[in-house]
Amino acid sequence: MRIESGDGLAKAFKLVKRDGLDNDTKVLIFSSYEADSVCATLILSSLFQQEFISFAVRPVISVEDLIVKTREELADGNVVSVFFINCGGPIDFKSILNDIPEGITFYLVDSHLPLHLSNVNDEEQVIVFPTDEGMEDQEEEEEDDPMEESSQSQDANANGNASKKRKIGSYFGKSASSMMYELAVETQKESLDLLWLAIVGFTDQFVHQRISDSQYLKGIEYFKKENRSEKFSVDKMQEDKGYGGVITFGYEYKFNLHRHWSLYESMYHSTYIASRLGIWTENGKKKLKTILVNMGVSLEECENRWDSVSVESKDTIRDKIQEASSFYGLNELMYPSFHKNIGMRLQVSACDVVLAVNALLENLNGSHDNFWKAYEALKGNDAHLTDGITEAIQIQKQIVVQGTHIIERGSMTKSGPFRYVYLNDMNECPAFTTPLNLTRLAIFVKEILHEFKVSKSKAPLKGRPLVLCAFDNTSASYLICGLHTRAPSFLDRNKFGMALEQSAAKTGSRIRSHNFEPSIMNILRDDVKKFMENLHHH
User: What would the pLDDT profile of 444-460 be if each residue is shown by its tens digit?
Assistant: First the structure.
């Protein structure tokens, strides 16, 4: 059952509160591994803590993981309310779980669309938070789920994504953290801390190109209104000193994390700049240095850490960087966003936090601890946040290095309707065996295809969707990510999820795990050849 914004949210929370205040019961929160999900989980946790509702958070990394952990928790018998944060919405989880005890209510807070119609239409046990204003207008036509017809292993069928995909393809609605912040507003529990979490989660969608520019600007306007000074009482001393809970609106450069390393390095490793200047070429490097020189700031100062650059030079850069960059077609070098100070010294933008949190979530050395480090970083653990920023810088460097290698070495293959890239040697760069990092690499390559003329005829390589396949030696499987090469648009649905599942079903390919983002899938190495050959026909 889909509830509406406003009074519908308040009524849903009253139901959770009524069921959750029984001392013998608890509320479960299942959260996926992405910044928006962790932000939403923290907002919801804060609301429960204020009402003294007992709850437990369970991070889940895949559909299979979600099903296993949900079954384990429901077997305890003291669960009354279950929240799925960016997980569970597009699958018919009730049919997969089987024999769900009476009296349990599932709350779907999922930005992955379309949601499975069995969830939207369930009037008894499922409450769907308002994730998309246009959901009711979407095409309702369904097709049989190829997962149910595939010859893959029984284990994969038992735990897998037994959904029916609507033919419109997958897309994203309102961020989970925005939904949870709206719940805080309706229950009169909003605060600057919760607003910041909502902004970070919303920015996560923007960073990964899950929403269009118009959707982003609409969200920015909403958060600007929420951030008005009269709504929150802020300690005047904190306000005067410029640190604490104050959130400041402003314009961010499209070179990430520039506050935390040098201006030159951040621009060189920027997806926006590198893809448009062709930074892997000598001419591209020359253009970048020309931009810096034309601003009137010494190259030496641009190569120093940002926090050591003089105030006067920072002002000069902000005043002249757009003019200097426009000569090379970099006309949209800045975008509206928010930033805040953490403690006395650390200033971060919403994008900085997104990249830091996702870096912590996908750290290959942390496994189970990753979620909780990201959780604590968002709660105010400066050490974890700083570690995440450091890791995010390294990942951004690897994205540009790996992406430029793909172009320089001609690693891209045209076959059927797609362009393919196989990343077979991940020993040197294992970061891309994780979903978010591989997605960002795919976005960088997509930007090159969309913006930079690399063919001999100087014609942009546009049109063909892009498929990246990264081999993970530890699991003997390929992580596959599919993207369209067009610019993001609200009406541009991604049908890769449907194509991937159909190819796996028709070829009997064994799926190691299903990501909550349907255009990402993990296929065992021995099956990937036949899987990819079949994908050509879509």
Answer: 998 888 776 544 344 44
| CA distances to 433, 443, 506, 513 from 477, in Å | 10, 22, 19, 10
Return the C-alpha torsion angle 247, 251, 257, 263, nearest 10.
-130
3-state secondary structure 504-530: HHHHCCCEEEECCCCCEEEEEHHHHHH
C-alpha span between 467 and 447 (Å, rounded): 14
Cβ proximity of 374 and 381 under 8 Å:
no
| 3 state SS for 354-416 | HHHHHHHHCCCCCCCHHHHHHHHHHHCCHHHHHHHHHHHHHHHHHHHHHHHHHHHCCCEEEEC
Q: Where are the beta strands (DSSP E) in 79-219?
A: 79-85, 105-109, 112-113, 126-128, 171-172
Contact 400, 445 (CB under 8 A): no
Task: Render pLDDT for 237-273 as a digit per residue (tens, 0 to 9).
Answer: 454 444 457 899 999 999 989 999 999 999 999 999 9
Cβ contact 186:90 at 8 Å: no
Cβ pair 360, 366 in contact under 8 A: yes
- Pairwise CA distance, residues 258 & 252, whole Å: 10
489 Cβ partners below 8 Å, 6+ apart?
212
Nearest CA to 25 out of 98, 125, 127, 105 is that of: 105
The DSSP letter of residue 278 is T
Distances in Å between the Cα of 137 and the Cα atoms of 106, 134, 168 are 24, 5, 12
Q: Which residues contact 443 (CB under 8 A, 6 or more apart)?
A: 208, 209, 271, 483
**Spatial separation of the C-alpha atoms in residues 484 and 236, rounded to whole Å:** 48
Place of tokens 């805080």: 184
Interval 162-191: pLDDT, tens? 344 445 678 899 999 999 999 999 999 999
Strands (E) located in 9-134 = 26-31, 55-59, 79-85, 105-109, 112-113, 126-128
| Among 465, 450, 449, 454, residue whose Cα is nearest residue 499 | 465
Tokens of 203: 């920015």
What's the rounded Cα separation, in Å, for the pair 227 and 225? Answer: 5
